[in-house]
Amino acid sequence: MTAPLIEGRDLVLSFGNERVLDQVSLAIHPGEIITLIGPNGAGKSTLVKTLLGLQKPDHGEVVRKRGLTIGYVPQKLAIDQVLPMTVKRFLTLTRSASRAECEGVLGQVGAGHVIDAQMSQLSGGETQRVMLARTLLLRPNLLVLDEPTQGVDVSGQAELYRLIEDIRRDLGCAVLMISHDLHLVMAKTDQVVCFNRHVCCHGQPETVRQHPEYRSLFGVREADAIGIYHHEHDHEHDLSGHVVGGCGHDHSHDHSHDHHHHAHDHGTTVKEGAGTHQ
Q1: What is the pLDDT of residue 39?
Q2: What is the CA radius of gyration of the chain?
Q3: pTM for the structure as a whole
Q4: What is the Cα–Cα distance from 78 to 82, expressed in whole angstroms?
Q5: Quick one: how far is CA 167 from the chain centroid?
Q6: pLDDT score at 81
Q7: Which residues of 34-63 are buried (b: 16+ CB within 10 A; e: fewer)?
Q8: Residues near 220 by Cβ (< 8 Å), separated by ≥ 6?
Q9: How many CB atoms lie under 10 A from the CB of residue 169?
Q10: How much is the pLDDT for 221?
Q11: Quick one: average pLDDT of 169-180?
Q12: Which end of the chain is least crowded, N or C, by CB within 10 Å?
């Protein structure tokens, strides 16, 4: 198998007395899409920051391929509403790029028409597309997206998922995408990682093309871009999210996402299916 672009090995991190990452191993390989799902407070963003070198773990190591270029789209972008800044200026804040290059990447994400617009006037979907375009100027080997559909309406979410798949195909890059929604994931994700301070489980998502609820909500074309991940753990949770048997991890932290019947397989490095720049 091709060597991973980036790999976290047995990562442990605590903030005070609170364990945030508990022996986490995760590897991302060239060209694959991994979706990291889990409840709020599960440590998903902390794990990503640790992989990117923005947060140092207490234990474990992160190994990155030499020369790896990473494009990172954060969860939120805070721009002063009274600060005049066009999209063109935003794209070139940290790197030089010609107007033609900016038009090119904006065109790739379907936002060519906003190049002279003020950032403060963009919709949620337009802002996400502009941030994606900014990373494309790097031609990244790995694209990291933290809650890419936050602030985007339902139909816009499906369109963004298709766009991310197109970017992966066109650039040949890997994608690590974070979501807090257990059920709404990209159909073409290669691996889904269920995460709650440790890797609960991982596997391939199932498409929902034939699922009547999703077809009703999104329509046929949109439903084809959405998947449901059915998974199993080696323990169960009570109504408060606490473990009632099987796994040796301390799950006293929040695990409030909806579990059906599932069971964890811990201690498994996610390797199949897996300097920082922004």
Answers
A1: 74
A2: 19
A3: 0.71
A4: 12
A5: 14
A6: 72
A7: bbbbbbebbbbbbbbbbbbeebebeebebe
A8: 209
A9: 11
A10: 57
A11: 88
A12: N
Strands 206-207, 226-228: parallel, antiparallel or unpaired by DSSP?
antiparallel
Beta bridge partners of 21: 13
Neighbouring residues of 268: CB distance < 8 A, sequence distance ≥ 6: 25, 199, 202
For residue 204, how many other CB atoms are within 10 A of its CB? 13
Report the mean per-residue pLDDT for the chain: 76
Return the exposure string of 216-247: e unless at least 16 CB atoms fall within 10 Å of the residue's CB, then b.
eebeeebbbbbbbbebebebebeeebebeeeb
At 201, which amino acid appears? Answer: C
Separation of CA 219 from chain center: 24
Give the tens place of pLDDT for each residue, 24-75.
999 999 999 998 877 788 899 999 999 999 999 999 999 999 999 999 988 7
Q: What Å distances lie between residue 156 and 52, 163, 260, CA to CA?
A: 28, 10, 28
Instruction: Find the Cα–Cα–Cα–Cα dihedral 117, 122, 128, 134, rounded to 10°.
Output: 20
State residue 159's pLDDT score: 80
